[in-house]
Amino acid sequence: MIAVFTALFAGCEDPTDGSDGTDGTGGSGTGGGTEMTEVDESKFTCLKTLEGHSDYVISVAYNHDGSRIASASGDGSVRIWDANTGETIRTLSGVSEGVSSVAYSPDGNRIICGFDDNTIRIWDANTGAECNQILSGHSDYVNSVVYNQDGSRIVSASGDGTLKIWNANTGECLQTLTGHTDEVSSAVYNHDGSCIVSGSGDGTLKIWNANSGECIQTFAGHSDRVNSVYCSPSYNGIFSVSDDGMLKVWLGYDDEAFKTFDVCSSGVSSVVFDPTTNLIFCGCYDSTVKIYRLDREVCQKTLEGHSRDVLSIALSPDGKYLVSGSGDKTIKIWGKK
Prior knowledge:
By secondary structure, this protein is mainly beta. The chain has one helix and 28 strands.
């Protein structure tokens, strides 16, 4: 357990204290050795608005090379979009109402969705045909689904208060992780797939050994439901956002949050981080996306354009674009003109 825990947070020195010889804005100080890119966040603007869904867009995801966007909606459909043109490429077949989460496999060939009927289903991303694979075992709705880095495992988070780890090829449930006292709203793998991080309606985050299923640590700092957790591939901290309106950054050697940002009194639905620019993006229930820098606790820019709650955001693999899904039925692609 100690070895796995150490691996999760290896290099997690304070990324903003300048003790690594940088000016405190990034470089090797991010803990992942990522080269920093200077970016003017004030130039972020809406580049495209994607229309086609007839109800709220609850989940969005980029594929492995950023050429495609998948979206899941309350209208009961999952659409695949061309990220460059904004045109709908296809709508997945066999999707019924109640889809709550969408994610691509690491190679971009499959799309996985979680449903309100307690199941997880997998599609061929290239043809839109259902792969005839339905993963059953949860006793309540599935809030979140994600692949590990090599695509061999899937983790799901459910309203039944559990997480499940699945064999992505056979659909077999390998483990059920228990410990949260309320629904599990979000789950992600860490940068090397050795651990899983979950966020829950009980206001806590938990870190789990992805092999043994053992709970390694619990972070209790939010005062309300944790809506989303995020682990960057090259930064070893954990990001969490909550109905309490706060964004917190956690490092593994301390039970207290490393940083806390007061983002939005209406609550925050989703979070992503770009380690090449030190920018943190937060989707908010006040219909905006707010941009922060890891080393500055003041909002650097607010992206306005949606007319209802921002429910989900995703960052393109190259970090140049952000996609958001909203209660206003639209998807927006943001970037620099």
